[in-house]
Amino acid sequence: MSEEPKIAQKGPYILEMEPGTYFWCRCGRSKTQPFCDESHKGTSFTPIEVKIEKKSRIFWCGCKHSGNKPYCDGSHARLKEEKVSA
Ligand code: FES
Ligand code: FES
Prior knowledge:
The chain is mainly beta and about 90 residues long. The chain has one helix spanning about 80-85; strands at about 15, 20-25, 50, 55-60. A two-stranded antiparallel ribbon has the order 1-4. The mean pLDDT is about 95.
């Protein structure tokens, strides 16, 4: 069974990131978007671990439907309106 992620935001979270290890929320349920806060417990989702080597601006996917997770690839523009409020 494949579960649908929740759309946290229909667009990217654009953040200036410091080097380090981050866990991108794949399920869309986290209250600390775009990062995992363990709200995925009880779902089939797990976060994606990302290592950032140098200070950089990251476009984190907020809609959770990117074809290049955890990064925004523009897929949010093709999401159906009715999915957004889910
Ligand atoms: Fe998900 Fe852009 S926010 S593809
Ligand atoms: Fe969404 Fe952990 S809270 S993957």
